[in-house]
Specification:
361 residues; mainly alpha
C-alpha cells in the first residue's frame, strides 16, 4: 500500500515538473529540475512489484503468454486512452513551437493509431516536430520501455539466479553511471526519442532499474520503520525538485547526482517504503487514493501540458500570471485520472480479464 502511495507522489511531482517546461530553455534552467528521475523510480517499483507478485507463479506453471496477457490488460487500456485524449486535444495546442494547422486529419489519425498500438515514431516523421516517439502523449515512451522490461523478465531475467541477477544489476548500474557522468548531456533525461543517445540511455535506465527492483524483491528483508510513507514521500519530492547541479560547465556534477538518486537512493526508498505499514486511517486512505490515480494520472496529464505550454507561449505569460491555470491543470488532471480509472480503466480491465484469462482456466 505504501509503495502505491509513493508512486502517486512521484506522479504528481512529474506533473509539476512538466508544467515548468513552459518556462525553461533547456534542462539547465528548468525549475523542479529532476522530475524526469521519477521514471527510474517507477521502473524500480515495477521490477519490485512484478518480482513479488509473479516470481512464485512461474513455479505453478504460469506461461509466458499468460503473463504477457496479464501485463497488457493491466497497462494498455490507459495507453489507448492517453493517445485518444492527445488526439482530441491536438488542434487546440497550436503555438510558435509547433504548427498544428500543418497537420492533416489523416496524419493525426495515423499518429493516434501508432500511439495507441505503442509503435514509436522516428525523428522527422512525427507530427509535432519535437522528435518524440509519441507526439500525442509524450510519457508513453516509458511504457514502450516498460513493455520491453516485461518481455525480458518473462523470457530471460526471471530465470537468472540471484547472484547472476546481482551481476546484471551491477553492470547496468555502472553503464548508467557512465552515461550520466561522462555522457553528452550530464543527465539521464533520455528515452523519449528514437535516436542513439535516447535509445542507449533509455535502455540503461530500464535495465538497471527494473533488474534492481526484481533483485530487491528477492533479497528484501523488512524492518520496522515508523512513518515510512511520509518520510519517503518528502524524500521523493525533494530529490525530484533539486535544481540543476553544475550548470553547462560541469555536466558531470549533475550526472553524479542523477546516478546517486537512480542507483542508490531510489532502491533505498523502495526498501523503506516496503518496510513500513500504514497504521492510521488517514495514511491508508491517502496511499490508496494516490496509488489508484498514479498510473492514470501519468498517462492522461501530458496532452494538457502541451495545451498549457501553448497558452503560456501565445500569451507570453509569467509563472505568476499563469499560476491559476497551472493549479487548475494539476487538479483537473487528478480528477480526470480518477474518472478514467473508475469509468474506463477498471471496467475495461475487468472485461478483458473475464474474456481472456478467467475463461481459459
Amino acid at each position: 500500500r505504501q509503495l502505491d502511495g509513493l508512486r502517486g507522489v512521484a506522479a504528481i511531482t512529474v506533473v509539476w515538473f512538466h508544467l515548468f517546461e513552459a518556462y525553461a530553455t533547456s534542462h539547465l534552467d528548468q525549475r523542479i529540475n529532476h522530475g524526469y528521475l521519477a521514471v527510474d523510480f517507477f521502473f524500480i517499483l515495477s521490477g519490485f512489484v512484478i518480482g513479488y507478485a509473479y516470481d512464485d507463479r512461474w513455479k505453478k506453471k504460469m506461461s509466458v503468454k499468460d503473463f504477457l496477457k496479464r501485463r497488457l490488460i493491466r497497462l494498455h487500456p490507459m495507453v489507448v486512452m492517453g493517445a485518444v485524449i492527445g488526439a482530441v486535444m491536438f488542434y487546440f495546442q497550436g503555438c510558435s513551437v509547433w504548427d498544428v494547422s500543418a497537420v492533416s486529419l489523416s496524419m493525426l489519425l495515423t499518429a493516434t493509431l501508432l500511439n495507441a498500438l505503442l509503435i514509436p515514431a522516428t525523428p522527422g516523421s512525427e507530427i509535432r516536430g519535437l522528435g518524440e516517439m509519441y507526439p500525442l502523449n509524450g510519457p508513453s515512451w516509458s511504457l514502450f520501455f516498460e513493455y520491453i522490461g516485461n518481455v525480458l523478465y518473462a523470457l530471460f531475467i526471471r530465470k537468472l539466479p540471484t547472484r547472476a541477477l546481482s551481476v546484471l544489476v551491477l553492470l547496468a548500474g555502472c553503464g548508467l553511471a557512465a552515461f550520466a557522468v561522462w555522457g553528452p548531456l550530464g543527465d539521464i533525461c533520455v528515452g523519449f526519442a528514437m535516436d542513439g543517445d535516447n535509445m542507449l540511455g533509455g535502455s540503461l535506465r530500464l535495465l538497471f532499474a527494473f533488474s534492481a527492483g526484481l533483485l530487491l524483491s528477492r533479497v528484501f528483508k523488512p524492518v520496522r520503520i515508523r512513518g515510512a510513507f511520509w518520510i519517503c514521500a518528502l524524500a521523493i519530492v525533494t530529490l525530484l525538485s533539486v535544481p540543476r547541479i553544475g550548470g553547462s560547465e560541469h555536466l558531470w556534477m549533475n550526472g553524479l547526482y542523477d546516478t546517486l538518486c537512480a542507483v542508490v537512493l531510489f532502491p533505498l526508498l523502495v526498501c523503506l517504503g516496503a518496510s513500513g505499514k500504514t497504521t492510521d486511517r488517514v495514511t491508508t486512505r491517502v496511499c490508496k487514493f494516490l496509488g489508484d490515480i498514479s498510473y492514470p494520472l501519468y498517462m492522461v496529464h501530458y496532452p494538457f501540458i502541451y495545451l498549457y505550454y501553448a497558452w503560456v507561449k501565445n500569451e507570453n505569460l509569467t509563472f505568476t500570471e499563469s499560476l491559476p491555470g497551472a493549479l487548475a491543470l494539476v487538479a483537473g488532471s487528478v480528477i480526470l485520472a480518477y474518472l478514467c480509472l473508475k469509468l474506463y480503466d477498471e471496467p475495461v480491465r475487468r472485461f478483458l480479464t473475464d474474456r481472456f484469462l478467467r475463461r481459459e482456466k
